[in-house]
């Protein structure tokens, strides 16, 4: 199985930007301009409001191809909204007697510093890409026409945006072009992003390219040089003045959503470890040891985010055997112990995976990780199976509460699982996570038919 790799935007840039901006607005207010206010109250109000305003105004939606005029527009919009908010805070706390000119002065100083930082980060990243070749993404284009040549020129003439363009394929050149050789090139050159001219590819070729991108963790984007593609999932972006369409919008690629999900994972897993595993683990350990010899915990290599392997932990539910890493438990499996039947039926055997969540290898909710041997097999035979690795695997998932838990008895089981996993990836929200967790708990209490 070839290795799967995908370049990504740095997940730290937006959280760092949030932290610095919040430090500026809170430090200026508390230490200099509004010394009479309760610092805790202002800190809570300003921080919460700033984050909410930023999400709605898209203040941190700045990418490598974003123009300076767009950044100025974002700053101005956030300035106006935050000014109104500070006036509302002042009016609500009129006893503080904060004068309007003080507010305007505070806003001016705060946004001068925030603007300087935002542009400094923007230009430093450009300099870093140009001078050191870092923070780059490898690109290739399928189709040669006026639009694609303009995009190729954009990539080659703007190194500050961090794109390394490898090749533009002439799809219409029947003698020298084939999708098979194209795919081999994309793999061997470790291309991160594929750009397709819609008008140059046939429907059959388009499907093959989409399947290749999905199954090999490549980002696929389209140049809309005709109007044949319409979908609410397609997202417009502009590189300079060239419109680009993204095939799949993944909410968890957004740094804010990543931060929210990771914070929830840390909080939830910590609560489970402290209040459940702390006393349950010794009891389960004694029961496992009394029935059979062997370790209390079972460790198994599985594929996670970006296809990276990690050790997944469970309470041991089988007698030690050499096939544990190769074959799933089946109905009436003789390897499963009496204690194992109970902890598998109630999903207690999965609880040690909350340590995986705390360590960052897994999430509470996400596509269930498979054994490495099974992943290799399914990646070859099940269409779009690799899409599941765009996000961290989970202890539970949408597929598991939708009837696709446990043993894969037929192709229908794994195809259904992949379908629900892709829906989850494309439609993630924290409310969906909470719904899945609640349904998982209810199913564990009731007991599930395929929990064996």
From TrEMBL:
Keywords: Membrane, Transferase, Transmembrane, Transmembrane helix. Signal peptide: none annotated. It is found in: Membrane. InterPro entries: Bact_transf, EPS_sugar_tfrase, Undecaprenyl-P_gluc_Ptfrase. The chain crosses the membrane at residues 12-34, 40-59, 71-91, 103-125, 266-288. The keyword Lipid biosynthesis does not apply. Residues 261-445 form the Bacterial sugar transferase domain. It is a multi-pass membrane protein. Belongs to the bacterial sugar transferase family. NCBIfam families: EPS_sugtrans, WcaJ_sugtrans. This is Undecaprenyl-phosphate glucose phosphotransferase. It comes from Corallibacter vietnamensis.
